[in-house]
Amino acid sequence: MNRALIILFVLCASVAQSFAAPKPNILFIAMDDLNDWVGCLGGHPQARTPNLDRLAASGILFSNAHCAAPSCNPSRTAIFTGLSPHRSGIYRNNQKMREALPTTEILPKTFSRAGYWAGGSGKMLHYFIDARSWDEYFPKKETESPFPRTLYPKQRPVSIPREPWQYVETDWAALDATDEEYGGDFLVAKWVSEKLAKKHDQPFFLACGIYRPHEPWFVPKKYFDPFPLDKIQLPPGYKADDLDDLPPEGKRRGPNRYFAHIRKHKQWKPAVQAYLASIYFADTMLGHVLDALEKGPNAGNTIIVLWSDHGWHLGEKQHWQKFTAWRASTRVPLIVRVPQGAPGLPSGTKPAVCVRPVSLLSLAPTLLQLSGLPPHKNHHGPSLVPLLKNPKDAWPHTAVTHLDQPGSFALSAERFRYIHYASGGEELYDIKTDPYEWRNLADDKAHAATLKRLRALAPTKFAKAVAPKIASMPALKWNPLAANTKAPTSKPAGGTFDVIFINSTSKPVQLFWMTPNGGRKHYATLPTGKQRRQSTRPGAIWQIAGGPVATAKPFGYFKVGDRTAKAVVPK
């Protein structure tokens, strides 16, 4: 065979291969703050999730999947960059991804460089879009706001009195509105569905961020109706004395003011009802997206990956919200469906449940392998393709979830879970016999070997948390004071954090803390143009005054909210 024929043969084979195995599309679906209250995961007997269940029945359901961090920002950053929190230094919600990782490439850009059209809608990253990484977004990527119009009550809070330490969105209610009037996730699902209904000239990476069941739990009334309040069942994982065998760090992580506040106002069952209603609404929006894919021209060549960024407590361990290392916070729904012909898995997936411990950190390398793209140097997780081929395949990996303090983490194996706190406390649970983690086995001599084995699998080096820049911090409201008046008294509650006080006036100012009994305590003289980092608590009042300390006259104050912020004394 002469050289020309050889070249022709190679070219023909290459062309034939490209026709035989076109690049698969990717539908990347996120559901925010969704725990295991899903029919196919059995987390709550009243959960209505027919669309999640039908997707799970057609793909691989990973029943032992865990987030890389139990809060939105570090979890989503890990998913989109492939970087674990203990390597990126992003552990908390108040950090900014692009401040810590200014040049790191994220998934949509990786696929865009590989010839894909990369589009998305709704919340995928933590309250920003990262316009440079997408070809198209709804709302428009230049806005850097991923949320379309959403109907909320005019008067809030609706459900529960708001305390100084309370997250403003801890609220819920049934709304007298249609899905279209409500907007929000309905508009996200509509936009994504329209993209799925079209034939595209190039493969697509299409992201769909369904915001519910993230707070506030406002959804149309018809989603509340299937859950009559008098029939609501409380979380099956709740146990009143569940903190007795925890180390001090665990006992501090457990009870928080939200759960006590909710119970005080007799809102536990209404809140459970609202969470179930929000899940049902989110599941219905998912149904619109799945219907559009199945009825459109892309059904036979689209990989579907569905995930939630972390779980959610509704009273388990006396806790409300997320942020813990327990399974209620770390375990997430994860479903993957691969059509036949995908370069990395030509046979596609067959419906199954996989019990191996997997991490959302594995999503990026998995999608690259499935699409026939080269691995990325930043990706830390193992690809899930071996488990997609055979869900019972040997799996030597564990899933690690990092808390907001470097060195505090949970390690999930197939049967056991190990929790380590940076100050040394430990917890060990046998999930097979104790799925709600009611019995801490860390001090049980019968499990000493298991504890030793899991310790040996844990990470040992942790990147320092990257401090957020002051410019990106939220600003506290400045409250000017009339002459001869003083600031209100402090009503501190909750844990401590820092507020950065900045003097932008032309003269030095005095910083006073207003005591709960009506007095004031001097903390610092702040020169012009200078700043001070001050530890404080929600509900604290900080008065700003001019002149010498003894005779300083107040002219304004700041009221501390529920998180780190800057307090700029205006010119």
SSE topology sketch:
Elements lengths: L2 H18 L4 E7 L18 H9 L1 E3 L2 E2 L5 H10 L3 H4 L8 H4 L6 H7 L3 E6 L13 E3 L33 E4 L3 H4 L2 H12 L7 E7 L6 E4 L27 H6 L3 H8 L3 H28 L6 E7 L4 E2 L5 E2 L5 H4 L3 E4 L14 E3 L3 E2 L3 H8 L14 H5 L9 E4 L6 E4 L3 E5 L5 E5 L17 H10 L21 E2 L16 E7 L5 E6 L5 E7 L4 E6 L4 E6 L6 E7 L5 E5 L2
Parallel strand pairs: 1-7, 1-9, 2-13, 3-14, 4-5, 4-7, 6-8, 20-26
Antiparallel strand pairs: 2-12, 9-12, 10-11, 15-16, 16-17, 17-18, 19-25, 20-23, 21-22, 21-24, 24-25
Structure write-up:
The chain is an alpha/beta fold and 571 residues long. The protein folds into two domains: 20-399, 3-Layer(aba) Sandwich (Alkaline Phosphatase, subunit A); 470-569, Immunoglobulin-like. It is 24% helix and 21% strand. It contains 15 helices and 26 strands. The strands form seven sheets. Strands 5-4-7-1-9-12-2-13 form an eight-stranded mixed β-sheet, sandwiched between helices. Strands 19-25-24-21-22 form a five-stranded antiparallel β-sheet, with no helix packed on it. The protein has a four-stranded antiparallel β-sheet with strand order 15-16-17-18, with helices on one face. α2 (50-58) crosses α11 and α8 (185-196) packs parallel to α11 (268-295). The chain is globular, with a radius of gyration of 26 Å. Mean pLDDT is 95; it is low at 4-20.
